[in-house]
Amino acid sequence: MSMRAGDGCDRPPLATGDDSGEADPLFCIGVRQRTLSRLHAEKLALCDLLEEIADSLPQALDRDQCLAASGKLEPLLREAHTYEEGMLFPAYVRAQGNTRSAVEIVARLKAEHIEDADFATELADGLRRLGEGAEAANVEAVGYMLRGFFAAMRRHIANEREAMAGFLSETG
Predict the structure, then answer these.
(1) Confidence of residue 142 (pLDDT cuts 50, 70, 90)
(2) What share of the chain is helix, strand, coil (3-state, %, to 5)?
(3) pTM, whole model, 2 decimals?
């Protein structure tokens, strides 16, 4: 299988038997759908874990959950943002004919990525400290941070799904 630069799809030849290097568009759409679905599922599972932690504060805090969430947070967002910004979003903009609307949607999603990554860094550090036994100076603030992050993450995923829905269901 070959790969065309910038589109993120392993590209088997078209079923015509030619060797032109052209990709089967249905295959690429399937790869994009599966990859984005997997990343969204992993982020939503992490949101569920963060919600469990927030609900456990202050008396039933599970330090192992804090460490697990802390360790997953930044790497998962980094993987998702790298895929989306490097592969999915450019393919989406190209497929939309480089329209102003498509460019604006992608710019908004990228801006949310920056905010999410910054927030995730602070949250991961706080969760790590809690997991290692440090007492939170203000448990209410930690709970507020957790709820703010997972609410924003769920909203981002919903927005991304809505924006990409037509693109990911195209048949070529």
Answers:
(1) confident
(2) 75, 5, 25
(3) 0.80
